[in-house]
Amino acid sequence: VFTRVIELIKRDYDLVSTLRSHGIELKRGASGYLVANCPFPNHTDSSPSFKVKISSGQSYCCYGCQAKGDVLDFIRDYYHLSGVNEAINHLTGKTVREIWNEIQSGRLLK
What we know:
The protein is an alpha+beta fold and 110 residues long. Helix 3 crosses helix 4 (84-92). The chain contains five helices and five strands, in the order H-H-E-E-E-E-E-H-H-H. Strands 1-2-3-4-5 form a five-stranded antiparallel sheet, with helices on one face. It has helices at residues 2-12, 15-21, 71-78, 84-92, 96-105; strands at 27-28, 33-36, 50-53, 59-62, 68-69. It starts with a helix and ends in a 5-residue tail after the last helix. It is elongated, with a radius of gyration of 15 Å.
């Protein structure tokens, strides 16, 4: 159940859109990456060290502070949340159970 909910969230909530909605200015980098200055408060940088891989399974990595992950990891770390459940709730406004009930009834996630 939980794994299926996470898969659907990662499918339906685009990392690039989520980053941009948080005011992160992404620019085209080399080899299919988008780059930006690191958005995490524990790392301030003057040149882009935050890279987003936009091809298979969107993910990010900061080469300065070593932060990395997917859209749920970003939400968890950006808001200092304790885990994936809180990140899901923050991103979707719903609990895992509510999302699962929507999946079971055939309703769309968003």
